[in-house]
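#random but structural
TW: two for the price of one
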Amino acid sequence: MLVSTLTTLRDLVLNLPTQFVWQSNEKRLRQAILQTIVYFDQFNFPLTEWEVYKYLWRRDLRRKFNFPEIRQALQASLPELNSKQGFYFLQGREELVKIRKERQNISSRKYKRTHWTLRILSCLPFIEMIAVCNSLAGDNAKEESDVDLFIVATPGKIWTARFYTIIFLKIFKLRPRPEDKKDKICSNFFISRDKLDIKHLMIKDDIYFMYWLRQFTPIYDRASILADLMDQNKWLAKFVNTDYLCNPNLKRKVNPCAELQFLKLFFEFINNFNFIEKLLKKFQLKIMPASLKDNANQGIEVVISNQMLKFHRGHKKEEFRDEWQRKLKIING
């Protein structure tokens, strides 16, 4: 009798949860797909099957899912979603396909227009990586958009790297202004190679920051800095699929010729003195707007240090997060 009872209990424990876990995993995967598409819907950006896999929101998933599993789940016709021409989007949002294609063409043109500018920037001293971020990184730029950059500098040389960058952009009138941003270069984020962990810049449930980081598109990477950046931010993999890093079209990468590389090394040699870094720091702080200095290091929008120079004010990260959560509540009832 005891043996029979134990056998029955064993079957209940070992067999029933197997089916339950399978159903639970399938349900969680469907919810993760929905969470991903709802987030990108805020930016009028429908996703392909591969992009759903690449950007999958995986915070609540208990295991990793491969691309065939994602594809199968999408083809199972989730009631909240629709598809057209290979793109998936929320019901009633068919117009996003046209918007997506238009912005993809705009983004391609922006890369071509700014190619030589970015190539010259890569030759400036102590710049080790230049990554395109925000809308252009996702091929979702508008015609009037500027080009946002994330720049990694040599440790101890961040002020020198920023000085030459700003001087070059200013001379050629390439810095964005409120009335003129189209194809201008926004270089408001410099970070030192020895300070690649940037988790502390997040707010609570900061989905915008996570996808911002996930979509970095390196156009110049002197020594595989992107791999180091992702390694220093391994926490991201708990929230977003990071198995497939962004590898941009080779035509979009900037590769300085031998002459420009020599020029870069020459400028690094003549600027490789501590007093120059200190002098350029003092100069930039002196001419920096008081509003920036007054708000520096009071939060995460403006950071001024010898390892990070970040000047982003009036960001809408909270709005994107709250709108994402609001839409999910409506859809899930």
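TW: number two ↓
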Amino acid sequence: MPHIHTQPNQHDMTISAYIVRLENDQWKCLVHFHKKIEVLMQIGGHIELDETPWQTVTHELEEESGYSLGELQVLQYIADRLREKGNVTHPTPLLVNTHNVGNEHYHSDLCYGFIAPASPTRSVSADESIDLRWLTLSELQDGAKDGTVLEDVLYIYEFLLGHLDTMKLVPASDYSLEKPLSIGMTYKRGKPGEK
């Protein structure tokens, strides 16, 4: 997905999906080779102007990993969640960060953690990287040392795996992909975006 805000010092909102799977009693972490950045990193992309963050998570997962929401569990700090009348709630991100991607451009990223019980049932989209790898933490550490893996990806996977026992698993498909239908408030003067 394209960058929306392209002027110096502007931010794009993005999502990241950190997916782990237990293989032969060892945790593996999903990364893919990003064609433009030329490094192994997490699944993710830009939140489009007409999408909710969870809609972005859904299509980025499907396009870049082949996973659908129904095949994953999202890691949450608590199993209970607030359900607001008229609003659509999303999972709580594992982490929210802002990072510099060069050229005076920033990404403010909603990072979600997932557990995959099995391999995805679909293939990666034709225009995405097909170089997906399930790596152990030690393989990620080696990759971060030699520059083939982004260091931030290693740190977030280390944190995620180090806190699995404190997190709750919630079916990722439990969260709505719809936009709110009811109007919770109305501007009394002007329209959104007007001064």
